[in-house]
């Protein structure tokens, strides 16, 4: 299993800062920050839209560990929701990782996902491409970050009854 089964906000923050500082992914002179919310949804109110908020959902490969029985599993269908906006010279990204319930426990507890460094970077590169397009008017480069190689070959069907994002009507994974 590649990557940790532990949720590490610091990995996301550090990778985001590296992309901004070292790789100049959003090289427009604005100050961007990444924060976390474990309750946000993907629906924006009219007022939020007027204030410039946008959303982006990313389907990622993650590892999960049941908080009840400690069972560990991998999933190529972990949803990550980003809300972002640029106001003046300040950009804000608020991220929410969605969990999955354990197939063995059925106790309505969602395990938060852990991700490899590569998967975090891939998700954040796709986010930066969306920000460049929607906040700076740059062309969206669909190849940036690309879809992970495993996304074309989803080995198992999506188990929507175990998916936290599905339970809230947010999941973008389609049944095949």
TrEMBL record:
Topology term for the membrane: Single-pass membrane protein
Protein name: 3CxxC-type domain-containing protein
SMART domains: zf-3CxxC
GO terms for biological process, alphabetical: protein insertion into membrane; protein targeting to membrane
Main location: membrane
Gene Ontology cellular component annotations, sorted alphabetically: membrane
Boundaries of every 3CxxC-type domain copy: 59-169
UniProt keyword Nucleotidyltransferase present: no
């Amino acid at each position: 299993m590649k990557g940790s089964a532990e949720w590490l906000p610091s990995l996301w923050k550090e990778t985001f800062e590296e992309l901004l500082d070292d790789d100049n992914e959003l090289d427009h002179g604005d100050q961007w920050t990444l924060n976390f919310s474990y309750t946000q949804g993907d629906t924006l109110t009219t007022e939020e839209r007027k204030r410039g908020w946008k959303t982006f959902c990313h389907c990622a490969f993650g590892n999960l560990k049941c908080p009840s029985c400690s069972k560990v599993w991998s999933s190529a269908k972990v949803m990550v929701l980003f809300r972002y906006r640029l106001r003046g010279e300040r950009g804000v990204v608020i991220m929410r990782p969605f969990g999955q319930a354990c197939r063995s426990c059925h106790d309505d507890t969602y395990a938060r996902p852990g991700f490899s460094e590569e998967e975090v970077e891939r998700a954040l590169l796709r986010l930066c491409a969306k920000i460049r397009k929607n906040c700076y008017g740059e062309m969206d480069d669909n190849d940036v970050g690309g879809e992970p190689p495993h996304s074309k070959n989803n080995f198992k069907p999506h188990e929507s009854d175990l998916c936290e994002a599905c339970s809230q009507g947010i999941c973008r994974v389609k049944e095949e």
